Amino acid sequence: MTDQIIQVSELSVVFETLEGRYSALNNVDITINESEVVGLVGESGCGKSTLALAIMGLLPRPPAKVISGSIMFSGTNLLRYNEKQMEEVRGTGISMIFQEPLTSLNPLFTIGDQLSETIRIKMQRHNEHDARDERKVRAEVVDWLKRVDLADPESAMERYPHEWSGGMRQRVMIAMALAAKPALMLADEPTSALDVTTQAQILRLVKSLVQEVKASVLFISHDLAVVAQIADRVAVMYAGMVMEEAPVNEIFENPLHPYTQSLMSAFPKETGVRKTRLETIPGSVPNLARIPTGCPFHPRCKFVKQQCSTARPELRETSPGHKVACVIYNQ
């Protein structure tokens, strides 16, 4: 039996603002198993990043408020942890790679200084006696810079974040996220700001390193092509809800939810026949302050039925490992 690293159950998060209450997550259920990469896809504003921040305990409070659910990690509900307890979890238990590394790295410290701090914290939490041995810390910094394929790591560690390209900074963030050997790594759109060539290099790097350190990953992206390259299983989100979940090959070969099918139709395919125009999804993403009743996708769905506007579908298993939230399959 595969061990579960994290289990998110019925998680609902709202943002209470002067303009009203925005529903960011609505009864979200996601489980990530040991050494598994789960891809989380959906349009901008669907709640992907909110889920990652909730797991990390980094939701801005206020205005964010968790109104229900649990996040079980190592047998404990993280939602019950205070800030001091969450600081113990971050890094060595759960780490995160953000979309733009320049905003995550401290511009006043060298790359070597920042990676050294991560390694010292890891050593201290694992009661390693090398935490005060600067030579051993430096040797591990150099080793990690080599692992992420940075040339001349001895020289590289003396440089500052602004001296690096976006791809090089992202490699440093990957090293910092994995150097602590976390059980779970959250990657929030880590390749979206990179060119296609660098993106492919980063994906290969992440895949090889997470296998090496045996970390589980929640890989967030709006790009189906990226998710197809790295994920074992995929969850599709829309308006704060998980609409479908399945193994990566299954969801590409047999998408069940109309929203997933629409995403696939808008995805460029290598058929050998030039397509002048990609299909689009009619309508627009709903305002999170006024999410439609019933299935949130029903105003844009070409298979809409009468009950779709009133019945909120549950995420149910239709075949082993394949779940979908749609009245078509909930009957």
What does this structure look like?
The model has no long low-confidence stretch (mean pLDDT 89). The chain has helices at residues 48-56, 83-89, 111-125, 134-147, 153-156, 166-179, 196-213, 224-230, 248-253, 258-265, 327-330; strands at 4-17, 20-33, 37-41, 64-73, 76-77, 94-97, 184-188, 216-221, 233-238, 241-247, 316-319, 322-324. The longest helix has 18 residues, at 196-213. Helix 6 runs parallel beside helix 7 (196-213). It is an alpha/beta fold and 331 residues long. It has an eight-stranded mixed sheet, sandwiched between helices. The chain has a four-stranded antiparallel sheet with strand order 2-1-4-5, covered by helices on one side. Strand 4 and strand 5 form a beta hairpin. It has a domain at 257-331. It contains eleven helices and twelve strands.
Approximately how much helix is present in the residues? 25-40%
Give the DSSP E fraction (strand runs of 2 or more residues).
15-25%
What does the overall shape look like?
A: globular
Question: What is Rg?
Answer: 21 Å
Series of secondary-structure elements, N-terminal to C-terminal: EEEHEEHEHHHHEHEHEEHHEEH
List segments where confidence is low: pLDDT < 50 over at least 5 consecutive residues. Answer: none
In the sheet with the most strands, the strands line up as 6-7-8-3-9-10-12-11
Number of separate strands: 12
> So how many helices?
11
The end-to-end span amounts to 30 Å
Largest sheet: 8 strands, mixed
- Write down the overall mean pLDDT: 89
By oligomeric state, this entry counts as: single chain
Please identify the structural class as seen in this structure.
alpha/beta
